[in-house]
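TICKET: design request
STATUS: open
ATTACHED STRUCTURE:
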């Protein structure tokens, strides 16, 4: 089987920015992650063996000086020392335990230093997605010629509607080639039509940002708040995450992903100082319109005009949903959109993988003899991830109804 991941920066920017914050604030923390297939899929015989072979191949993937030069130019908020860290970074197959049960379900557990295993999630999900289509033969249905045309048409609609948007489709892409074609077609269309009111802000994938000279887009993921909640409790996890983020990046990368434990506790943590410091918020669960209304009310209660703030929408969007939200939000805030699977895995008759890898336990130092469990709640009850007993404990701690 050919190697699927061959570039170190074939990864989402938020993994690099979070890694920097982890090394700066929690350098000795250790974590556990777990893979979940929300569709409870049956994987082809031998899938785990092929996956383990791909995991082993990651050990020869190292960052290049070309990639570092690009990131230094496009990501000035990352400190110089971090690039030396990346130069010395190596993957180790021992971090990951992948297997299949007798029914063919896939089981994956990850454990190690947070500053190292943080780089596993996106690459591993991209490998699983592409490998699944290869081993089932579904990749034979990928019409890449029409896919490029379709991607350009999506770009045209977004730009004509005045949307500022980016690709966030690495984790569940159909293939590396699919994302390459998608990002390339959208970049080409945007550059050919500068007169349109919308804007292609960039892509979350650092490698494709480098290839097409785009801005790498991203800040943080739920795992940053989840880990802090595991170490210190969920009540103040958002506040502590904002504090650590601000101390690391000094006002840069100022979009906060607020929904890890729902709007209510975040709103209580979102004081005027951080509301002014952070440029905006990202909506990743719940009803997009209801969430925006809550955000606007919160800003106004703090004496801040929400029209001066950015709100990024990234909750299971497609082109139609993004354009509809743009029409509603454009007079209320500065909306932008991060779209993933709809961009990079949109082939007729092919079902996108509904797979995630979530952080489930953490300890602040390797000397601890035990881990603290954690979970993610969000604004969608169906998206709660973690052991049910841990979810119940966090709901109780936050005084939320189950």
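STATUS: resolved
RESOLUTION: sequence designed for all positions
ATTACHED SEQUENCE:
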């Amino acid at each position: 089987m050919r190697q699927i991941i061959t570039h170190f920066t074939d990864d989402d920017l938020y993994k690099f920015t979070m890694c920097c914050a982890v090394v700066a604030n929690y350098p000795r923390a250790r974590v556990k992650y777990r893979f979940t297939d929300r569709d409870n899929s049956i994987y082809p015989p031998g899938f785990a063996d092929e996956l383990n072979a791909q995991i082993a191949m990651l050990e020869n993937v190292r960052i290049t000086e070309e990639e570092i030069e690009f990131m230094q130019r496009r990501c000035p908020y990352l400190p110089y020392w971090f690039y030396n860290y990346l130069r010395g970074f190596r993957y180790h197959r021992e971090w990951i335990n992948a297997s299949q049960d007798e029914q063919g379900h896939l089981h994956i557990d990850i454990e190690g230093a947070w500053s190292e295993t943080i780089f596993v999630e996106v690459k591993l999900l991209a490998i699983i997605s592409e490998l699944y289509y290869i081993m089932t033969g579904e990749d034979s249905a990928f019409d890449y010629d029409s896919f490029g045309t379709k991607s350009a048409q999506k770009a045209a609609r977004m730009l004509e509607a005045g949307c500022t948007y980016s690709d966030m489709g690495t984790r569940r892409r159909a293939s590396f080639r699919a994302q390459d074609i998608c990002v390339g077609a959208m970049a080409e269309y945007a550059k050919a039509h500068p007169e349109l009111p919308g804007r292609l802000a960039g892509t979350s994938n650092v490698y494709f940002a480098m290839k097409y000279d785009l801005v790498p887009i991203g800040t943080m993921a739920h795992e940053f708040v989840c880990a802090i909640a595991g170490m210190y409790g969920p009540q103040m996890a958002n506040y502590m995450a904002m504090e650590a983020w601000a101390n690391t990046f000094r006002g840069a990368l100022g979009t906060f992903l607020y929904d890890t434990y729902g709007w209510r506790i975040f709103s209580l943590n979102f004081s005027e100082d951080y509301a002014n410091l952070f440029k905006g918020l990202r909506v990743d669960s719940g009803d997009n319109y209801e969430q925006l209304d809550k955000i606007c009310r919160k800003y106004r209660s703090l004496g801040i005009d929400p029209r001066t703030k950015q709100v990024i929408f990234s909750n299971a969007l497609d082109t139609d949903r993004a354009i509809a939200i743009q029409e509603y939000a454009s007079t209320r805030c500065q909306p932008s959109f991060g779209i993933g699977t709809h961009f990079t895995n949109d082939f007729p008759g092919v079902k996108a993988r509904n797979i995630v890898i979530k952080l489930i336990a953490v300890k602040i130092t390797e000397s601890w003899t035990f881990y603290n469990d954690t979970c993610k709640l969000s604004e969608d009850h169906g998206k709660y991830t973690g052991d049910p007993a841990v979810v119940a404990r966090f709901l109780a701690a936050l005084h939320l109804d189950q």
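CLOSING REMARK: Residues 11 and 123 are 6 Å apart (CA to CA). Residues 144-160 form the longest helix (17 residues).
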